[in-house]
Design a protein that fits this description.
single chain, 6-stranded antiparallel β-sheet, about 20% strand
Length: about 180
């Protein structure tokens, strides 16, 4: 089960809105959705969680590039919403690294499960190792809003969004959209 909400900072405090991510396919789409929530180019946080598995925070400040933090990259990689957040840049990969290199494939007629006797253990796909079972992204994303890097990294996925909202003074508005 997923939950996603937008928290937009206004001159009157934080405003929360429940958001539907079904039409969001890229990080750019998500950033555009967040910017629509704040016509004055104020800070907008996109909070996403998958029940007890991972959480993510995307921060949009006006027209600046989105800043992203994901609590468990490997868990998020198994999620369609997590895949939106896990950009090549965030994972430290060159764009397109996850695409198979057709020149490197051994197309000798053994593709159907036959083996040619060679030791295939050395050819293990590095893509599985490229996504760590740890936090990735900007762990200082909320420092100026009252959640330090250490506090952010210590949050459990099952209560992270509530803890973040509480630190921001926005727990009541977040609860209204839950």
């Amino acid at each position: 089960m997923y939950f996603a909400a937008l928290l937009a900072r206004t001159e009157d405090g934080w405003e929360a809105s429940d958001t539907e991510l079904d039409d969001v396919e890229t990080l750019s789409d998500l950033a555009d959705l967040a910017r629509e929530a704040s016509p004055d180019d104020d800070t907008v946080l996109v909070l996403i969680e998958q029940e007890d598995a991972w959480f993510g925070v995307v921060r949009i400040d006006g027209e600046e590039d989105p800043r992203i933090y994901v609590s468990d990259a490997a868990a998020a990689a198994r999620s369609s919403y997590g895949e939106i957040l896990l950009t090549d840049e965030l994972l430290g990969r060159e764009p397109g690294d996850d695409d198979p290199d057709l020149d490197a494939l051994d197309l000798d007629g053994t593709e159907d499960g036959e083996t040619d006797g060679a030791d295939d253990d050395d050819d293990a796909a590095p893509a599985a190792e490229a996504v760590p079972h740890s936090p990735v992204g900007d762990s200082e994303i909320l420092d100026d809003l009252g959640v330090s890097e250490k506090e952010l990294r210590a949050l459990d996925a099952d209560d992270a969004l509530n803890s973040i909202a509480e630190a921001l003074g926005a727990s009541e508005v977040l609860e209204t959209v839950r």
